[in-house]
Amino acid sequence: MNVVGQSNIRGAKSLELEQAAEGLVFSGPARWFIACLTMLSIGVAVNQLFTLRIGGYAMLEGMYLYVLAGIFLSITFLCFRLWGPVSSRIPWYDWGLALCSLGVSGFFVLTADRSLEGGWEYAAPEIAIWFSIALYVLILEATRRTGGFVLFAIVFLFSIYPTFAEHVPDPLNGFTQPFQDVVPFFMISAEASFGIPMQAFGSLVIGFILFGAVLQYTGGGRFFNDLAMGLVGRYRGGAAKVSIFASGFMGSMSGSVISNVLTTGTVSIPAMRKSGFSAKFAAATEACASTGGVLMPPIMGATAFIMASWLGIPYVQIMLAAAIPSALYYFALFVQIDAYAARRGLTGLPKSELPSVAATLREGWIYISVFALLIYLMMAFRWETTAPFYAVLLLLVVNQFKRNAAFSLLSFVDMIVSVGRTLAEIVAILLGIGMIVGAFQATGLTGPLANELVHMAGDSVTMLLVMGAITSFIFGMGMTVTACYIFLAIVLAPALVQAGMNELAVHLFILYWGMVSFITPPVALGAFAAATLAGANPIATGWEATRLGAVIYVVPFFFVLDPALIGQGPPVEIVLAITSAVVGIWFIASAMQGYLAFAGAMGSGAGAIVMRIILAIAGFLVAAPVQGIFGLGQVGSSLVGLFLAVLPVLLSWRQNRLPVHNVEQA
C-alpha cells in the first residue's frame, strides 16, 4: 500500500476514534440532516461568492448571512448539548430549537428587502421585534453551548449594556436605549451580529475551513508530518523539531489550539518521549507549537480573515505581515529544543523508523501543489474568497484517483458532518460576540473609551502597551481566539492607533497577546491538554511552556514599536530589523536553556545563572527596537548587547573545551 494511502486510512481511523471518544459519531436522521444542511450552506456560499446567479437570482449580503446563520445555528443545537459534554444523542427539545433556528432566520431572509428599504434596524415593526428577540435568545444559547459560560456571561452583559449605559460611570458611560430597540439593532443592522465578523465568515472563513477539513481527510496532515519527520527526524531533538513544523502547519489550518494539540499531539508526544524528552517538555513543546500555528501563515485560522475585513485590506497583506513574527517565534522554539537535546545528549530517531523523504514526496506531492495553487491564486489574482474552493476541488478530484484513498459515500458524509460542526461552532460564537460590537456602536462608546485609555496611560507608549498586553491576556483566558481578538479590536486597538502606532502592527499585537493565555498558568489550556496526553503534571507543563514560548511575550512589543518586523518600511530597515531580531532571539532562547550553539553548555551554579541572565539581557538589547537607553539609539543599543554577549559566549566556549568536562544533565 502506498504512503499516502496508508496516511489516509490512519487519518480516517484516528478521526473516527477522536469523534467516538467525544460522542460525535452521528447516525440516522441527524447525520443526514447535518450533512444536507452543510452541503446546502456550501452551495449557497459558492453561488454567492462566484456570483453564479443560480435561478437568475443573487441574494443581498444580509439575506445570504441570514441563510448561513439559520443553517449553522440549527446544526449547533444538534451537535452541542444543553448541559454536559457534547454528544450525538439529540433530545427532542434540541430538535425543536434546530427547527426554530431555521424558521426564525427564514423570516429575516424573506423580509431582507423590506428591512433594508424600511430601515428596520432603527424602527422595526412589532413582528420584527418579536422575531429579533427570538433570534437573540437562540444566539445567546448557542454561544453558551459552544463558547462556555464565561463567554456567554460577557456577551449577555454587553448585550443588555445599552439599556442602562447612562447609569454607568465614566469611561463606560453611554447612550441608553430601550430593550425593544436594542435587540432589532443587534439582529438587523450591519454593525452587530451580522457585522464585520459574520461578513468575514461568509466571504472568507467558510472556504478556508472547508479547505482545511478536506486537506486533513485526504491525508494532507499526515503527509506534512511524514515529510517533516523524514527531513529532520534523524537529528538531535528531531521528534520535537518535527512537532513544531507539523503542529504549526495544522494550527494554521484549524485556528484552534486545543483541537490542534489533541490531533497532532497523539503522534508527536509519544515520538518525543521515545526520543528521550521528559513528559513535561514534550507536552510543553506541543502546546507552544500548536499555539504558534494560529499565528502562522498561510491560513492562520479564522481570525486573520476577520482582521483583514476589519482593516479593509487584502488578506495577503495580513499573511505577509504575520510571516516574520511567526518565523521568529518558531526559530526561538527550534533553538530551545536543539539546546535542550544537546545538553542531554539526545539523538534523533533511527533512519529505519523514519519515513522516506523521496517516497513521501513522490506519493504526496499533490499537497504541496495544492498549497502552491492556493497561494498563487491569492497573491497573483487576489481571489481570496474563491481560491480555497478551487483548491478543494483539486484535492477532491485527485484524491478519487488514488488507490485505497478515494472517498466512499459514507466517508464523504463523515467529512461534511465534521465540517458542519466546525462551521456551526464558529458561527454561534461570531453571532454572539457581534452583539459586543453592536453594544459599543449603539451607545457611541468606542471613541470615548479609546480616548480614556490614552489619557490613563499619559504620554507613555510603553505603559499603554503594557496595559494592552495585560488586558489581552485577561480576556484571552475566558474567550476563544476569535472572540478575544474582536473584543480587543473594538476596545483597545483604537487607543493604541491613536497613540501613533501602526494599525496593522496593533492588531497583530492584540492577537499575539490574546494567544498567550494558552501556554501561561493559571489557565494554560493548551499546555494542560498536552499534559493530559503526556501524563505530565499540568502546572509544571504550563511553566515549562512559558519558558519555551518566552519569545511570544516580547516579539509583539518588538514589531509594534518597529513595524519593519512586519515588513512595513524600506527594505534596508526590514533586513536590519530581522537580522537584529534573529541574533537577539538566539541569545534569549539559548539563555533560557543554558546552552549556546557553537559554544556549548553554560554549566551550573550561581555563576552560570549570572551568565545566562547577562546573555538574555544582551539578546533583548540586540533585538528590541529601543531608543534612548543611556542616550544611545537602536544601533548603539544593539552594539552594547553584542558586547555584553561576548563574556558568556567566551566563558561557555572555554569551559566546554577543558580537558575534563561533564555536560550538565539538569
Structure description:
The protein has helices at residues 3-21, 28-49, 61-79, 92-110, 112-118, 126-160, 179-188, 196-217, 220-232, 238-254, 257-274, 279-293, 303-311, 315-344, 357-380, 387-399, 409-443, 446-457, 461-478, 481-491, 493-498, 503-515, 525-534, 538-548, 551-561, 571-593, 606-623, 634-655; strands spanning 595-596, 600-601. The chain has 28 helices and two strands. With 666 residues, the chain is mainly alpha-helical. A hairpin with a 3-residue loop joins β1 and β2 (600-601). Strands 1-2 form a two-stranded antiparallel ribbon. Residues 1-23 and 660-666 have low confidence and may be disordered. The protein has a domain at 570-666.
Core attributes:
disordered N terminus; mainly alpha; 666 residues; 2 strands; two-stranded antiparallel ribbon
Report the principal-axis shape. Answer: globular
Helix amount: over 70%
Q: In which order are the strands of the major sheet placed?
A: 1-2
> How far apart lie the N and C ends?
44 Å
Q: What would you call the structural class?
A: mainly alpha
Low-confidence parts lasting 5 or more residues at pLDDT below 50?
1-23, 660-666
Total number of β-strand segments? 2
Query: DSSP strand (E) fraction?
Result: under 5%
